[in-house]
Amino acid sequence: MALKYQRPRGTHDFVPDAAKWADDSGRRQYLEDKFRALCHVYGYGEVRTPMFETTELLRRSVGEETDIVSKEMYTFETKGGDSLTLRPESTAPVLRAYLENSLHTRGGVVKLYYCAQHFRYERPQEGRYRQHEQLGVEALGADDPALDAEVIQLALAFFRSVGINSLTLKLNSVGSIESRAAYLVALKAYVEPYLAEFSAEGQGRYQANPLRMLDTKNPRELEILASAPHLSSYLTEDERAHHAAVMGYLADAGVDYENDPFLVRGFDYYTKTAFEIQSPDLGAQNALGGGGRYNQLVETIGGPPTPGIGFGLGVERALIALQALGVDMPALPAPTAYIITLGDGAKPVGIKLLSDLRGRGISAETEYGARSMKAQMRAADKAKARYAVILGDDEVALGSVQLKSLHDGWQHKVPLAEVADWLSGDTGGKPPAASPLLPK
Ligand code: HAM
Question: Phi and psi for 25 in degrees, rounded to 5?
C-alpha cells in the first residue's frame, strides 16, 4: 500500500508563492533579511543554537508550572538514556550558549540575535502552530533601562520596517523573585475565597506557583483575577525607578505604551520589565511578539549574576498580519535572460551560454524538455524575464543569437560571445546609453 503523505499536525511547509503568506518561503525570507539587517544596525550578532537542548535546562529556566513545561514540550529519551527536548523557546538555549562559549568574559553588553524554529505541543489554530519561527534578540550584561528601551524599539522598528504600523505595546514590571514573594502572599489571600471555582490546574498553580495563575485563559478565573492586587504595589524602590526610567526613555522616543498590571508572560524567568506587542489585525492570537528582562536567569543556569533582556517575534503572525493588511513585500527578482533553443545543435550551445551568464552573475533561466518556440516564449513571459535569448541552428552556425526585449519588443542579432556583455551592461568601453540593446 502506498504511504499516505501528510505532514504532522500543526506544522507547515514553506514553499514559493504560497497562497497563505504564513506558508510562503519568499516572504518569510524577506522578513528574516529585514530583521537581520536591522539587528546589524543595532549592533547585534547572530547566534545559532541546537534545535534540541537538555530537558533539565528548559524545565529549570522556563519553570515547572508554566504551560510550556507542563504541557507543551516535545521531550524524548535518546538511545544513551539522556532526556532531550526540542527547543520551545530560545532564551534559555542562548544563555546556555553565552556561558558555554565564555561570551560573559568578553565584558560589556553582549548582543545576540536569532531566526529560529521552535516546537510546542499546542492545540493548532490560526496563528498557533506546533512549529513556529521567532526572530529574537538577547542583550546580556547590563541592567540599564536604556537597554530595555533599545530592545523594545528594535522590535517596533522591525514591524514598522515591514509595514505593520498599528501596534499596541503592553508594558509591566514583574519585580524579582524576592519582591514577588510578598505579592504572591497577597495574591493567594485574594484568590483563596474563590479557590473552589478554579480549575484543577488553577488550584495546582495556587499551591505550586501562584504567579502562573495569571497566565490562565479560563473565563471565570480571568473574571476573578481582574480585581486581584497588582504586582506594581509590591515592587522595590529600585524596580519602580527602573520601570519609570524605561517609560521615560520610551516617551522620549515617542513610543506609545499601555501599562498592563497583569502581564506576566508565561515564563518564570522574567524580572522587572515584561512587554508584549499586539496587533489589532490578528485574531485570537494577537501577540506579534513579546519579551522582557531576566536578571536572575543566568545564575539559574549556573553562571555568574548577569542581567539580560530580550524578545521573540512570531514570523507566522507577522505574515498573517501583513496579509490581512494587504501590505505585500517585493517579489523575488525575475530572471534577466531566458534562453530559448530550437534544434539539437542549439541546445548544448544554449546550455553553455546559460552557465556562462550565471557565472557572470546574470540571472538566467531556460526551458527543460523539448518544446516549441511558442511554448518557450510563453514560459519566458511567465517567468517575467527581461530578455529572451533565442538560439536556432542557423544562429549557432553564424555564432550569434537573437536578443529580444520582452519589455519593449525589439529584437537584434548579437554575437554569441558578446551576449553576457550586452546583458551586464559591460560593452567594452562603448557608452551603455548609446545602445538600444542595453538593459534599462
Ligand atoms: P513567547 O511569547 O512565548 O516568548 O513567544 C514569542 C512570540 O512567538 C509570540 O509573541 C508569538 O508571536 C510567537 N509564538 C509563540 N508561540 C507560537 C506558536 N505556537 N505558534 C505561532 N507563533 C508563536 C518567548 O518565547 C520568549 N523566549 C521571548 C523572549 C526572548 N523573552 C526574552 N527574550
Answer: -70, -35
